[in-house]
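Field notebook, page 254. I keep forgetting to write these up properly, so this time I am using the form the group agreed on. The chain and the ligand, adenosine-5'-triphosphate, are recorded exactly as supplied. Prediction of the bound pose follows.
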Amino acid sequence: MSSEAFLGIRDLHVEAGGLPRVHGVSLDVGEGRFHGLLGPNGAGKTTVLRVLYRAARAKSGTITLAGRPMRDWTPRGWAGVTGALVQESGLLSGLSVRDVVEIGLARTGLSEGDTAKRIDEALDLAGLADRQDQDASTLSGGEQQRTHMAQLLARDPALYILDEPTNHLDLHYQLVLLDEVRRRGRTVLATFHDLSMAARYCDTVTVMSRGRSVATGTPADTLTPDLLREVYSVEGQLEGTLFRLEGPVRCDRL
Ligand SMILES: Nc1ncnc2c1ncn2[C@@H]1O[C@H](COP(=O)(O)OP(=O)(O)OP(=O)(O)O)[C@@H](O)[C@H]1O
């Protein structure tokens, strides 16, 4: 791990469904940096994140956060400094939008007034202030995603673990919410399929393919035409933060 990394993952191996799915992935994220985890469907991105939010166990490897190995953190301590936006999250029926955001602040020790202020700010950011009393399970997919993002922003953990944060969101809320995450200056590890969004937000990226890390660095240095051809079977290139497709998509990837 480089000396300044806030999150360090070293030679991570993970099994899922009885088979090896992540084979020796290593990456470092400096404090306050936004790191993207990219790659095709099934590459192993979520499996890496699941270990970080303790939904899965690593078979081997080392994870270090703020200089301390994961095994030295209590589950409660780990949960206090990390926060995850996950694919499999459901919204409990019977909870209002405000309740869901408030749950994220349980056991933070904030005063009642500060708790209410944080919730109000997060609901405003996510455009949910006028929906706060609605049963969260009746929201649209994008509104549910905004509610989960509001929960995370209200808590504002030191490490944001975001699995496809742009999922279901219209362009306005993709930009508003990720701009806000960036503005907070926290450390972020986020998966993306949209390479333009990845290039816009990420300081650095790791590209995974078939459970392995195949490239890492800045988006401009990493997402080269050769890499895009090899990993995604597309002809294209980044122009600034814009991914431009050039030519036909090959159908022989699998
Ligand atoms: N519990 C499980 N049982 C069986 N297979 C699993 C399980 N969990 C993950 N896998 C497999 O592991 C591989 C990696 O899955 P993962 O969800 O990490 O991919 P991903 O890169 O996040 O993909 P996507 O972009 O489609 O979300 C996939 O082939 C998936 O089917």
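OBSERVATIONS:
- The chain has nine helices and twelve strands.
- The pocket of adenosine-5'-triphosphate is lined by residues 16-17, 21, 39, 41-47 (CB under 6 Å).
FOLLOW-UP: compare against the apo run.
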